[in-house]
Write a sequence for this structure.
């Protein structure tokens, strides 16, 4: 089963052997959004500027989760990440908050799962902190933006247009 | 800031005091999807039936992540969950896999974050196991389906129609 | 060895049996301080109000560490805490930041270690975030303030005067 | 905000990018103390020699906590430490136990937080194991002793005299 | 598939629903052994009495691992254990060390996996600490000794004679 | 105490200093077995082929536990493993399941504890999933098979014949 690299020839799950891959600088960026009610949107927007800092807490959650991706995703390698950042954009027209997570590593395998896990934890934390106001929020559009540094080359998500 | 219960009156983040809330039976169900390429879809579908069991691994990931929600989402209470299940549906027409996570607890606070975290980890694991075939997969539509057992009453997500 | 309850009669470490103790409401509060340079003090004070929120990050660290006290302190019982808060006071005259952690539980054993661990992690996080400015900071005065709810009765630390 | 390296130019918390820093041998040593009652002091002193080994348990706690510093302090990098030791000194004249933690790493960033976290966990464990005898113990004087191996050069804490 | 309770009717792994089971006092005891060389046996025996305390470290490892059984064994419930002890017996005639782990809980499901996991971690720690002397050590005879408190009644392992 | 490398000259436990050891490719393989009843054996055998996949779940458990060996065994170094696999063999004549765990690393210290911990967690998971059918299962014969890549040279367990 060519494409499913997380299985051996008998179909059993494995943590893929990357021992012989070269150490290179690697980076990945992923993003995702949460769609919220008008009331929640205003609370987040105001909270950021003044008090009740939803995004500050979500940022810490995303960074901490990225570091333990290997403990959440079964076949991910444990990786000593050298950088993690989380950035948020408030999108007024769609009443949504977009999160972007960027991760870096000097190592033998890519960090895209770390970026995706960081985004997911940040968005889940926003949900958690605002759920008393709105239970209908939806997390959406979690995907890889960019990936560089491995044998498979530079990946840049095609623009939707 | 009335709606944001995770902050005290000064705007500081807190793990909300639920000591005085009654112990009741609580449940929550959440779902979400991952949209994949035709090639990935077939690999998952065949793998499930025969070998290379992507969904079996994703199910374990979701169950284990639900148990440590409190260690991923900063202000969640540590909860001794009494049930976690993850179910998948393959949706051929949209080339997507839907995950549903159901959690239960006899306790003082709800388990919706546990259900949402279980769904997220299961979908991320599918991404991880199939990413060598397709880096353009997208995780979407993560939301609460149902919640029962707390003071705020029974929540059932309104049908989209 | 009467006083050392964490050992059995042969002197071996044990996680004390609390199965037969009654479930009661328990709380504990602990505090501690970090003494910093004038430059760090100003950076924290301004950061809190405007940007670079040292204390917001330290608060999250303290809450999350309190939840996993049982995984840090070998003989502590795993406890499903029902409340954790961290509060900071900036003390201009001594150039120090004081942290107070309050924890609650409806359970069979006390939560003083959770309060003390929350304080310690919060202060260590302040150190981490400011260490590029000053490596001579000192963490001090970590102690229990109050404890209520167990068989040993109400403990209130005697005033130093 | 020059000194606060854990924030980006917008004031948001980040896990600092160390990808481009050279791999060098790094070490750090930190210390701290716990002041106890005469009764506790004697119990620890005798326990060490004969049975009821408080310090042996505290040493293991400190070593294990140093290894997971990155999971306790939000913006610390995950680091594959190559050495951790904890040493204790009983100081009869002040009725206190001093802990020193030394950590080493061949890597891209320093290990002072690991040394400080190891000391803190060791001292908290002493508190835990002796708290049935004395709730008034105080943890104090946690600070960095020495740090070597990074760009910022050798740091040796100035003598108090 | 009647006997395999960790699967639903479709054969999918689940964390079994125990929400409706009564809270009762539960205990379990498990044991296991490690067979070592004469040289290792003597080192452990002398170490216990004087210094180089292999068994003290292994005891802490077993207690801490029992507490996180739910994070090691995928379908185990998270349980707030109320007691964990580890006891060792040195068996000169077979050159082996036997470990017994006893766990208790007031809860809705049994603690036999916690007792078995505690034993396993304690024996692995002995292996780790002595492996420089002998790589041929073997861990054996890990089994349940006793279990009480659930619907399935009292289990006492039949004597081998 | 020559052979016990996990203690310093005073007999205190340490995480051994490996900073100055060279980075080399290292591998280790370990195995172990669980003896089960005829009924359990058939359930596992059929489950593997069709549904109720005991071994698939146990494989994930073993891989994930190997990654956190450093968090289970107190004096193990945290290691960014580059490969983990778990393989099972059903042995009809002895009614047992044998697990083999292979781990690799490019690093400064060996990975035998990771292989042994992976085996132990996999076997414990089999016990967990089948315990409703048979509480008399026994885990046995956990030992190192092979180890390569360090200063101590290639170790291959002598054949029993």
């Amino acid at each position: 089963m060519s494409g499913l690299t997380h299985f051996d020839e008998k179909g059993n799950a494995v943590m893929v052997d990357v021992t012989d891959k070269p150490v290179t600088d690697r980076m990945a960026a992923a993003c995702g959004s949460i769609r919220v009610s008008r009331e929640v949107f205003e609370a987040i927007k105001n909270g950021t500027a003044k008090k009740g800092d939803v995004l500050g807490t979500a940022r810490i959650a995303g960074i901490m989760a990225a570091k333990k991706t290997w403990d959440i995703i079964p076949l991910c390698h444990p990786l000593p990440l050298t950088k993690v950042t989380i950035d948020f954009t408030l999108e007024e027209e769609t009443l949504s908050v977009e999160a972007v997570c960027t991760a870096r590593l000097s190592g033998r395998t890519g960090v895209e799962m770390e970026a995706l896990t960081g985004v997911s934890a940040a968005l889940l934390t926003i949900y958690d902190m605002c759920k008393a106001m709105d239970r209908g929020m939806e997390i959406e559009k979690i995907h890889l933006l960019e990936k560089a540094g491995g044998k498979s080359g530079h990946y840049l998500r095609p623009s939707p247009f």
Notes: Helices of chain F lie at 38-49, 54-67, 69-72, 112-130.
